[in-house]
Amino acid sequence: ALLIPCILHLENHVGEEIITMILRKGLERFQGPASNYIQDLEDVIQRKVLGSDTSPSHWKLRWSRSADGAHQIEPIQEHNTTVRCMMNSISLLIESAFSNGDNEDKTKLILACSKYSQAIELLTAHCILTDEELDMFQELIDDFFQIWIELFSTEGMMNYIHLLGAGHILYFLQKYKCLYIYSQQGWE
Fold first, then answer.
1. In sequence order, which residues have a C-beta less than 8 Å from that of residue 188 and are 6 or more positions away?
2. Mean pLDDT in runs of 10 for the chain (188 residues)?
3. Residue 84, class by beta-carbon neighbours within 10 Å (0-12 exposed, 13-18 middle, 19+ buried)?
4. How far is 93 from 89, CA to CA, in rounded Å?
5. pTM listed for this prediction
6. 8 A C-beta contact, residue 22 and residue 93
7. Dihedral angle of Cα 67, 78, 158, 42, to the nearest 10 degrees
8. Sequence-separated (6 or more) residues with CB below 8 Å from residue 165
9. Percent of the chain with pLDDT strictly greater than 70
């Protein structure tokens, strides 16, 4: 018997991976002290993504130092509501992470994340999907996946991104038409 994947966990973990990889790639390309990049991103997330100028959140960007002393961003690990807020502001995060001008990658990431967000809207719909919606879901994921692999190769790969890109989630969608009703009942 096949176990149905939990789309709540998929959405959360893929969002965490997307945010982590974008912030890491931005730090890699940043010209200046890494501490400035980390503070700037933390400020954007506290004041524009999760809070406001008058009521900033207390969120902190976790980082450590590698063996050679370089700053490295730790994997983002947050509740689904926080990840959703961050993904809803993903264009702002991308713009902030790539503030010193890597416009080609910035444009590709904004497009990829837009495709992913549209696909997740379909995947998390609380209704039976039509055959056209199923096809649209996989087309959006294919577009996302192609750009994602181009930018991050295997470094940006994780089980859930593989399940999406390889069509495994589409298989379950075709079989059950709506995976929302199985959230928190499948496997993670």
1. 5, 6, 9
2. 82 97 95 95 98 97 95 96 97 93 88 98 94 97 97 93 96 91 64
3. middle
4. 6
5. 0.94
6. yes
7. -50
8. 141, 142, 145, 148, 149
9. 95
